[in-house]
Specification:
Uridine Diphospho-n-acetylenolpyruvylglucosamine Reductase, domain 3; 38% helix; alpha+beta; globular; 3 domains; Alpha-Beta Plaits; 5-stranded antiparallel beta sheet; 9-stranded mixed beta sheet; 505 residues
Length: 505
């Protein structure tokens, strides 16, 4: 057997039988971690010890920054959090050469019911935060659906959810940031205090300073989401309904769509309610034995009729977590089998960090060649043309569609008028397009997004040049802020230096 044949066989075994490692080791390890982190978060919040610990933890970060400052400053700074612990499926090579700063900021600090805000440290997860707020009858206006997404990642990167056509992106529900700058100082910023810094932080990817805490709006929560499913077998008809619902003066609270091929999909419209009505059935999709949500939606498409369901609010918020949208079907192909769900569904999903940590290089190479994880953000009126391009270049289904409003605030996302409605097109899976090639296909889509004045989520592979990147994102305010912050350019690279494909593997 030749070396090439051996490598091909190894890749086949690692891909086809990776589930053995996941089921026998990663799922039990994930369960232990979830139980520990849930109990710790509950105890710390109940004892109200997090605010007292916060100042000490911030001082420890300051100490490390000042140690770098007093040295030769020959390296730049980044958090010491291993990249396998992040939600991005790539790992940053810069971690190996930068000075790594330990940032152990993992707690919910305060819920202020009077001002309807919550203050959190950056490594608080969406699952942790939604669980804490649920007990108080509250919720974030925007709850990005995967449990393991962190406040810091959603602030420094971005986050979107099915309520974003009303409330905007995750950054738009934030009212204050606490940052540690490269000189070791601590500064707070809001739209009224240090506004330039406040508007420059989102999408900055830790290149202005280290996030120490964020204050976010909260809203009253109800028990259930009344969810309507509307199947379509025509892309123009689906697109028309999707845009109309997103742009209504008084829209539903939640708008989302899943496409199962270029012409067929389901538009979902939801609203919070306190009681289960007689017009639909109760569906606790968060139960361990429940089918994966995207598979349930597909059944509604095949039934070809609109129906109504009542889903517990927190189940709805995290509806795509159990199957990691649909990525787990490529790792545990039998994960939605009824027997597996009843026996082992309570262990799902494995922690993304553990999947990354145990991912062999052969799987990484295979992902380079034959896997796409991308979110492209385009003006909503371009939806049909964008879907046609994604079909031609990737042919990956399902496709996630999520509308969101962008106000014309200072920062990197500049839009026309007072605000503009966009749609997040999420593509995650194995491309079936004839002649698919990763770089050329992604470059074609990036060019389309830039031409239509859209944006690319930066957790995924970015093949743009630096000049193209700066054309996609408005760096005017960002550059000005970097010029004014002490030691900023010494301590941190530009955003492009942390997200372009050459610094990730």
């Amino acid at each position: 057997m030749t070396a090439i044949e051996t490598e091909t066989l190894l890749e086949y075994i690692l891909v086809e039988y990776r589930w053995v490692l996941v089921v026998t080791a990663l799922l039990p390890m994930s369960l232990v971690w979830k139980v520990w982190s849930t109990l710790r978060s509950y105890v710390v919040f109940k004892l109200n010890s997090a605010p007292r610990m916060h100042d000490r933890k911030v001082q420890e970060v300051q100490r490390q920054i000042k140690a770098w400052l007093s040295g030769d400053r020959s390296t730049r700074l980044c958090t010491a959090r291993p990249t396998w612990q992040t939600m991005s499926f790539r790992q940053g090579l810069y971690k190996k050469t930068f000075t790594n700063i330990e940032v152990n900021l993992v707690d919910v600090l305060e819920v202020d019911k009077k001002n309807m805000t919550v203050r959190c440290e950056p490594m608080v997860t969406m699952g942790q935060l939604s669980r804490t707020l649920e007990a108080l009858g509250l919720a974030l206006p925007v709850v990005p659906e995967l449990d393991q997404l962190t406040v810091g990642g959603l602030v420094m990167g971005t986050g979107v959810e099915t309520s974003s056509h009303v409330h905007g992106l995750f950054q738009h529900i934030c009212v204050q940031y606490e940052l540690l700058l490269a000189d070791g100082s601590v500064v707070t910023c809001s739209k009224d205090e240090n506004p330039d810094l406040f508007y420059a932080v989102p999408w900055s990817y830790g290149t202005l300073g280290f996030l120490a805490s964020a204050v976010m709006k909260v809203i009253p929560a109800k028990k259930y989401v009344r969810l309507e499913y509307h199947p379509y077998t025509s892309l123009p008809e689906l697109s028309k309904r999707f845009q109309e619902e997103s742009l209504k003066q008084n829209p539903h609270q939640f708008v989302e769509a899943l496409l199962y091929n270029k012409d067929q999909g389901v538009v979902m419209l939801g609203d919070m309610v306190d009681e289960i009505g007689s017009d639909g059935k109760y569906n606790p999709i968060g139960k361990w034995y429940s089918e994966w949500f995207f598979k349930q939606v597909e059944k509604h498409l095949n039934a070809r009729q609109s129906i109504v369901e009542y889903i517990p609010l927190r189940d709805y918020y995290h509806r795509h977590t159990k199957s990691l949208f649909w990525e787990l079907q490529d790792i545990i192909s039998f994960g939605n089998n009824v027997i597996f769900r009843y026996l082992f569904g309570w262990l799902m999903p494995p922690e993304v960090s553990l999947l990354k940590l145990t991912q062999p290089e052969a799987v990484g190479r295979l992902y380079d060649r034959a896997h796409v994880i991308q979110d492209m953000l385009v003006p909503i009126q371009t939806l049909e043309r964008a879907i046609q391009l994604f079909h031609d270049k990737f042919r990956v289904y399902p496709i996630w569609l999520c509308p969101f409003k962008v106000p014309n605030n200072p920062g990197q996302l500049r839009v026309s008028g007072d605000w503009q409605m966009f749609v997040d097109i999420g593509v995650y899976g194995v491309p079936k397009a004839p002649g698919f090639e990763t770089v050329s296909a992604t470059r074609s889509v990036e060019n389309f997004v830039t031409k239509e004045k859209g944006f690319q989520m930066l957790y995924a592979d970015t093949y743009t040049t630096r000049e193209e990147f700066r054309q996609m994102f408005d760096h005017t305010l960002y550059d000005r802020v970097r010029d004014t912050l002490p030691y900023c350019k010494e301590a941190f690279p530009e955003i492009y230096g942390k997200v372009n494909r050459s610094v990730r593997k």
